[in-house]
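Retro notes
What went well: the complex prediction finally ran end to end.
Inputs used:
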Amino acid sequence: MSRHLTSLGIVLMLAFAGGNVGLWAQDHDSVHEAHAGEQHDGHDHDHAAHAESDGANHADAHTHHEEEFVAGEYIIHHIADAHDIHLFGDVHIPLPVLLYLGDEGFRFFMSSSFEGHGHGDKNFEDAQGVAYTLHAADGALPNGQPVNAGVITAVKSGSQLELFDFSITKSVFGMLVILTLMVWMFISVAKQYQKNPGQAPKGMANAVEPLVLFIRDEIAKPSIGAKADRFMPFLLTVFFFIFFCNLLGLVPFIGGFNVTGTMGITIVLATLVFLLTNLNGNKHYWGHLFWPPGVPLPVKFILVPIEVFGILMKPAVLMIRLTANISAGHIIILAFTSLIFIFGEGGDALAAGSGIGVFSTLFMIFMYGLELLVAFLQAFVFTLLAAIYFGDATHEPAHH
Amino acid sequence: MGALLTPAFGTVVWASIAFLVVMFLLRRFAWGPILSALSDREQSIAGALSQAEKVRQEMADLSVSNENQMKEARAERDRMMREAREMADQMVADAKNKAKEAADKEVASAKDAIAVERKAAIAELKAEVGGLSLEIAERLLREKLESTEEQKALVNRLIDESPLN
């Protein structure tokens, strides 16, 4: 039942998100073409400035971002991870940047050290003569290496340095906030239980207990059975982590965290599910995988590769489902925000903008309600499917 | 778009470390105590419920046995009363019998006494009659027995005089 509901939700979400992104991309193109001629003249100095530091291909795109509202880029900018927290306008909360530069060792500085306003690439040169660039858009380095928006590259005396970015980015910061909150919250709940053994729960314990019981009795026990206790710490941690991160992403005015829509974080959760499943796999599980019983020999040759692919696919799907759902929710809400600016034409059409604003606001309220549901649902689905995979790996054969 | 779809290496490292540390911290200091407290409480509630059920059953058993005892007591009382009545009847009957026997005995002894008395009286009477007859005969003889008239008169008078009744 719940799984049907979820797949329906996913289809709806993706349909919504896909439709909207497509729409904005089209808009972007037409607007881009219409204004291309007149935009170029007034901003030649911008071109020159960027052309020096960047590949020329995206310097062209940058100048337009500053003048023309482009919904697609605006949305991607807001849901992508970043090296600072963008509150509004030019107000940013700086975050620590920690880079490993191979022979040069570790470098640490705050993201506010980067210079440059608006949406262009930002630069910073440290005392050791290493020049860093925080790229604003997808493109390529002069040596042809492709680079994504939000990535930092470093150059010393004309040569690219190999760089590993261990910065506390927006998503990492959000994750640390949530994990700290969880440690504080659940340890104090545990203390409450230890203080009043056998008593009815009070306060925070009362809020947490139904969810803990839900995960134990509705997810872990039916899916895993007798060995459920072994997996409870992971299931509880992952459920509350996803749930709280999803909720954090819905809090307005704090920079729009998208922790569970960040691949770098969901891939870790999926990898843990993969490891826990396969490290706990019993003889029965591996037997079914590599020698499916009751199947003719030729079919085994087809089935085994599919099954082996499946053990990688299952956690990968967990990761994609979570990332896509949460990002999609953000995309829809941002898309409705964008509608106001698009119809308002940067203040030229106030009436149209206000009219659409009323419509968009009503729809956003609805979307927020839906997203609250999705925040819980995705945490539930991830936990449930992880529990089902653990159950598959640990079930003792009842027959054969 | 690429930034959305590519997992950043640093993020993966931070997420792995932070998530695992928090998971082990919580397992040790939160989930363990919370889950064991929950299962302890469930067990104590289940125990209390089964205890209550047992007590209820005991109460039911007790009331059944009370009723049985009452029934037994009532039967006992009835039996005792019946026995007492029977005993009383028996005693009355015995007493009657004894009294009758005693009376019969009295009557019999009285009869015997009467019979003895009668015999004695008859014997006495016989002796008396003999004595009288002799006295009469003596007197007759003394009265010279002249005439038969006179003799007859004399005999009659003597008979009349005699205390024979």
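What we learned: Chain B touches chain A at residues 1-16, 18-20, 22-23, 25-27, 29-35, 37-38, 40-41, 44 (CB under 8 Å).
What to try next: split runs per interface for comparison.
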